[in-house]
Amino acid sequence: MLFRYTQDSKGRPVKTAVIYTKEEHCIDNTKIDSDALKIITQLRSFGFSAYLVGGAVRDLLVGNKPKDFDIVTNATPSRIKKIFRNSRIIGRRFRLVHVFFGSTIYEVSTFRSISDGTVGNNFGTIEEDVQRRDFTLNALYYDPIKEQVIDYVGGVRDIRKGIIRPVIPLDTIFVEDPVRMIRAVKYTATTHFKMPYSLRHKITKSAHLLSPVSPSRLTEELLKIVNSSHAYEIVRLCMETDVYMYLQPAATGMMYSNPDFRDSYLNHLKELDALNASGADVRLGQKLYYLIYDFIACLTDWEAESVSSATGDLYTKTWTQCRNFVLPMNPQRTELEYAIKAVLKDLGITIRIPKDAVGGKRRRFGFRKKSESEN
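Predicted structure:
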């Protein structure tokens, strides 16, 4: 085991990080995308430091192949852009660089400073950057060239113990960024690590801080849940910590008041997890189906409606109510429409949408009850 040192105000060496060697961490470099290695090697060749960081390092430590490989460096975004022609700078406040290899995107960020707290936008050092990472399991840096894991916060120890521990003090972590509560729940559900009582209590007590968070950020987090294969576990834990009422308030209210609705809603999330775990290439609308089915099913007596209604008003009303039901999530309209039509079809109603209905002035939607041959 090696150590990284810095100096205090009197010039004395101070141990700041533990460095785990290949024999100690046992990471298999063949599980790292070759293009991610190219990016790190290229940055090094220009004299910059560069590491894998975050969830990729966590996954590698437990023997899994990461889905994403985020890279951090001391090079500025403009310098990264000059090194990689196949890249673009994104972000308004804190700029990042996306490097493209075919359809694969690698996110390269610059070390961030803590001069303005843990949500500031200034560049800094690796020692500052680690203090901005939310939880220790995501605050590890891996040097694939030297094959060393650099640990400033005891993240390797926490991963081995199976515990979710924040890097940022509990008094400020959720005040500065409430979305960290969603991440804490997500990490707990996906890793099956233990969430300490102090953290769980703090999340439950602070859940209301999610109220002013922008719909765009909440939509991003919800879509991550929908696209995961752990939606059931995440939502269940979100319910237990009072977080879900700020992600899907309408669904939460119905689950609290109606146990049958809750059971069916959660069972549909299990079906969603199975779909995602299968690896099938399906569109978002097919996944949203599982979030809205129970709501639409309880709106009316669909068998009676299919006989008595003769206009498209029923679809219009269903769409409006369903749109309100999923708020503050704001998915792409065409995907939500696809999900609604799929639910109605399974309830015995087939929606026929004119070719010019999307994008312009909408016509009324006709519908018909499926014949026996279609069932």
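Summary: The first strand starts at residue 2 and ends at 7.
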